[in-house]
Design a protein that fits this description.
This protein is mainly beta. Helices cover 11% and strands 41% of the residues. The protein has two domains: 171 residues, no CATH class; 93 residues. An eight-stranded antiparallel β-sheet has the order 10-11-12-13-14-15-16-17, with no helix packed on it. A five-stranded antiparallel β-sheet has the order 1-6-7-8-9. The protein has a four-stranded antiparallel β-sheet with strand order 2-3-4-5.
Amino acid sequence: MLAAALVILSGCKNKKPSLTGEDPVEVSDFIDFFPETELPYQFGDTTVAKKEKDSLLISQKVFNQFVPDSLFNKIFGKGTKLKIYPMGKVKASGEETYLFAKAVAGDKKEAFVLAFDKKDQFTDGLSLLRADQLSSTQQSAGMDKGYSISKTITRKNPDGNTSEGKDVYGLNKDTQKFMLIMTDALDDKITELINPVDTFSRKHKFAADYGYGKLNLVSIRDGRKKDRLTFFIHFEKSDGACTGELKGEAIIKSPTVAEYRVGGDPCVLRLTFGSSSVTVKETEGCGSHRGLRCSFDGTFARKKEIKPAKKKAVTKK
C-alpha cells in the first residue's frame, strides 16, 4: 500500500500543471512549458500564420501573472482577448532566459520574444513578426548563437529584383531592455552622416561613438573643461519621417550622468552612461532640435573604436 501511494504521489509531482485555466502557477512551470530550442533559431511568417493545437494554449490570465498586458495592448488594443502559444525557449549560459511566444486575436497573429532574468523575473518584451497576406514580401525572425535577435523582411519589387531590410536587437546588460543595435533599411536613402566632433579628443572613459546604423549616432568627446563632455546627436525615426540633431556640451553631474542645459534653450537632455551604452532622456522639451512627433529618448550601444593602422617604418639600406 505504501509503495503504491508513493508511486501515485510521484506521478502527481511529475505531472506538469495545466496553463489553459485560470489557476495560479509557478513561474518555473510557466517557463518549463516552452520547448527547448537550439541556436541558431529562426522562423518565418508561415510559422506564425499556422493554426496551433489548443492543448498548447496558455490562458491570458496565467500569462499575465508573469508578463504585463501592456506588451500586447500596444499591438492588439487594451482589453482584447488573446490566445497565446509557446514557440521556443533559449537559456543564455546561466543568465537570462528568452521565451518566444505567439499571440492570436481573430485574424491577427504576432510573434514576440520575452526576456527573463536569472531570478526568472520578466524584464522586457519585443514584437518580432506579424503574419500578413502580402504575397510580395516574406518575413523571418530569430536568434543567433550570440543571442542577437533579428527581424528580416524580403520584398519582391515590380522590376523582378528583391530588396531586404533587417533590424538586429540585443538585450542591454545595464538596462535589461531590448535595444536596436543595427539596421539595414529596406530602401536605402541617405548613405553617410558627417560627425562634426569626430576629430575631437576622446580621453574620457565615456568618450566614444554610440548608436546603430549610419543615421543614429550619439558621439561623445572630451569637453573644454574636466567637468564637461562635448556631444553630437543625430537620429532618424519612423523610416526617416522624424529626425533630430543637437551639438553641444553636457555638464557631468555624477559618475554616470551628464546633462545638457544652456540658457536661452528650453531643451534639457540627460545622458546616462552604462558599461556598454548611453541612454538619452529629454527632461525638458527639445522640439526646436527635432520633429514634433518624436524625441531624443533612446538607448544606444557603444561602438568599438576603430584605430588607424600603424605605418611600418621604412628601413634605409
